């Protein structure tokens, strides 16, 4: 039988690879390891990669196994989901994995300047009606700049045409260096070795979406520190399908 939420939360409280600082806690207790993740937790000088909105943590764990010379931190507010990846990392003895349970809106409170080299946004909620909540919005990009190295890489992997289109316009409008972009990740020829390597990683829901015939879209771009970021002023058709636990949207509707 699977564990209940209370049992999972009890496990999370004692797991050494989990740090729990939801907004209510972070307001009262400063995060003393900010700027010191390598020295105080990972005990190495390897690059740090964040997965924001990591869900069950499957992708964080698989990336860590694929790249043992890098450090990975999965971030989400849903502790019961995160328990899956945190437990797997402990059971498999992965020392280059950690999980941070917090609100992504305050992510810059937990990392110091230039502490992070890469960010992954995997199947984020497209937030079609609320631009400021989109994890690829300029408001979040400004947060990322506070701890991402100058020109650090941002990866977006999504089933949402809306989010992918929005992010494409955001990157183009702000002239961010685009490294790679495809609207059909698993059926694109001539992709670079780094991108090909990640094809071996599929989350549970990603496999479900692919079975439904949905394309998986992927892009990666650099985020320089210089320059003012502006939101693209363009209407984008809303997703016309029902994604996992998301309300159905009409393709006839649009949003900025």
TrEMBL record:
InterPro entries: SAM-dependent_MTases_sf, tRNA_(Gua-N-7)_MeTrfase_Trmb, tRNA_methyltr_TrmB_bact. One of its GO terms (molecular function) is tRNA (guanine(46)-N7)-methyltransferase activity. Pfam families: Methyltransf_4 (PF02390). Pathway: tRNA modification; N(7)-methylguanine-tRNA biosynthesis. Its EC number is 2.1.1.33. It comes from the Bacteria. Substrate binds at residues 159, 203-206. Keywords: Methyltransferase, S-adenosyl-L-methionine, Transferase, tRNA processing. S-adenosyl-L-methionine binds at residues 51, 76, 103, 125. Coiled coil: none annotated. It catalyses: guanosine(46) in tRNA + S-adenosyl-L-methionine = N(7)-methylguanosine(46) in tRNA + S-adenosyl-L-homocysteine. NCBIfam families: PRK00121.2-2. Catalyzes the formation of N(7)-methylguanine at position 46 (m7G46) in tRNA. Belongs to the class I-like SAM-binding methyltransferase superfamily. TrmB family. This is tRNA (guanine-N(7)-)-methyltransferase. It comes from Xylanibacter rodentium. The gene is trmB.
């Amino acid at each position: 039988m699977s564990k209940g939420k209370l049992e999972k939360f009890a496990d999370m409280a004692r797991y050494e690879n989990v740090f729990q600082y939801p907004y209510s806690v972070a307001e009262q207790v400063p995060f003393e390891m900010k700027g010191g993740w390598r020295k105080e937790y990972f005990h190495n000088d390897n690059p740090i990669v964040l997965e924001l909105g990591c869900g069950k943590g499957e992708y964080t764990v698989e990336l860590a196994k694929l790249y043992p010379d890098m450090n990975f931190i999965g971030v989400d507010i849903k502790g019961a989901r995160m328990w899956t990846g945190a437990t797997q990392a402990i059971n498999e003895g992965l020392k280059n994995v950690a999980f941070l349970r917090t609100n992504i809106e305050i992510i810059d409170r937990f990392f110091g300047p230039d502490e992070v080299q890469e960010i992954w946004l995997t199947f984020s909620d497209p937030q079609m009606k609320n631009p400021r909540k989109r994890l690829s919005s300029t408001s979040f990009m400004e947060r990322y700049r506070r701890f991402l190295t100058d020109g650090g890489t941002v990866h977006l992997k999504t089933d949402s045409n809306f989010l992918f289109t929005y992010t494409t316009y955001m990157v183009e409008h702000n002239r961010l260096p685009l490294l790679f972009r495809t609207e059909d990740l698993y059926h694109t020829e001539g992709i670079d070795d780094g991108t090909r390597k990640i094809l071996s990683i599929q989350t549970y829901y990603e496999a479900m979406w692919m079975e439904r015939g949905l394309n998986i879209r992927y892009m990666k771009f650099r985020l320089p520190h210089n320059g003012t970021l502006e939101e693209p002023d363009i209407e984008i058709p809303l997703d016309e399908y029902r994604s996992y636990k998301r309300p159905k949207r009409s393709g006839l509707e649009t949003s900025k």
